[in-house]
Design brief:
With 269 residues, the chain is an alpha+beta fold. It has two domains: 142 residues, 2-Layer Sandwich (Fructose-1,6-Bisphosphatase, Chain A, domain 1); 104 residues, D-Maltodextrin-Binding Protein, domain 2 (3-Layer(aba) Sandwich), CATH 3.40.190. Helices cover 36% and strands 27% of the residues. It has an eight-stranded mixed β-sheet, with helices on both faces. It has a five-stranded mixed β-sheet with strand order 12-11-13-15-14, sandwiched between helices.
Length: 269
């Protein structure tokens, strides 16, 4: 089975509309703090029933429209799909800890891959009504306006987001933060890897690095950054899609500096 450009363009438009639809659901629940309870999948791994609700809604809409497509969701929804068909990779709420604690910095992340190509990336922040969208080969936009990567050539006035995941352990995280501080950059961690990557694509950050990240947190951001003119390491190398990988994304002018300083084990150019 093969998919032409038109078939993917249709999926791109559907994904944008769907991100807005489910984003409104998430926003409504966020604003009504009594409408959900907070649980944990593990230490510092927050979960609310809203995550599952939004994921099920995304899955049902996509499966109804594109029954041949595969699906991978953070909260467990999955479908292999037909051979050669697009596979949707979804984080229903990236930044669940923020969502749970009443911090309005979270997003819906929807990506579609065909083989090893990330074809579609949509990240929607419903609290500020910002939709970051990219279609491979067609550029990246923020609310319909073309996005461009930062033009920074050094990090003395730059900023880097350093993502955190317990799988890498606190020692590796603190060491990575220290190396990033050593570049002269301001270092941030805002609690949503997907939004952190979207901000790199929009030129709001100069780089993003993480010792370990899952596919649903980063695939949409990867195509956003590439289409905005930035550099991203090969996240899909090996078992990246199913098991995660380290990640480095940067503006071209600071890529070499970030790469040398990050020194992340297992990072693939």
């Amino acid at each position: 089975m093969s998919f032409d450009s038109l078939a993917l363009d249709i999926r791109f438009e559907v994904a944008k509309a769907l991100a807005r639809e489910v984003g409104e659901v998430a926003k409504k629940r966020f604003l009504d703090r009594s409408s959900f309870t907070i649980g944990f999948k593990g230490p510092q791994d927050y979960l609310t029933e809203v995550d599952g609700e939004v994921e099920r809604l995304i899955f049902s809409r996509l499966h109804q429209l594109f029954p041949e497509d595969g699906f991978i969701g953070e909260e467990g929804a999955g479908l292999p799909g037909h051979e050669g068909a697009p596979v949707w990779v979804v984080d229903p709420i990236d930044g669940t800890a923020n969502f749970a604690k009443g911090i309005p910095h979270f997003c819906i992340s929807i990506a579609a891959i065909v083989g090893r190509n990330v074809e579609i990336g949509i990240i929607y922040d419903p609290m500020v009504d910002e939709i970051f969208a990219a279609r491979r080969g067609a550029g990246a936009t923020l609310n319909g306006v073309t996005m461009k990567i930062s033009q920074a050539q050094d990090l003395t006035a730059g900023s880097v987001e350093v993502g955190w995941n317990l799988k890498a352990g606190p020692g590796k995280y603190l060491a990575l933060v220290g190396r990033m501080v050593g570049t002269g950059a301001s270092v941030f961690r805002c609690g949503s890897g997907a939004l952190g990557l979207a901000y790199v694509a929009a030129g709001r950050r100069d780089a993003y690095v993480e010792n370990f990240i899952n596919s649903w947190d980063c695939l949409a951001g990867i195509v956003l950054i590439r289409e905005a003119g930035g550099y991203v390491s090969d996240f899909l190398a090996g078992e990246g899609l199913r098991k995660g990988n380290p990640l480095l994304a940067a503006a071209p002018g600071v890529k070499d500096t970030i790469w040398r300083a990050a020194a992340i084990e297992g990072l693939v150019p």
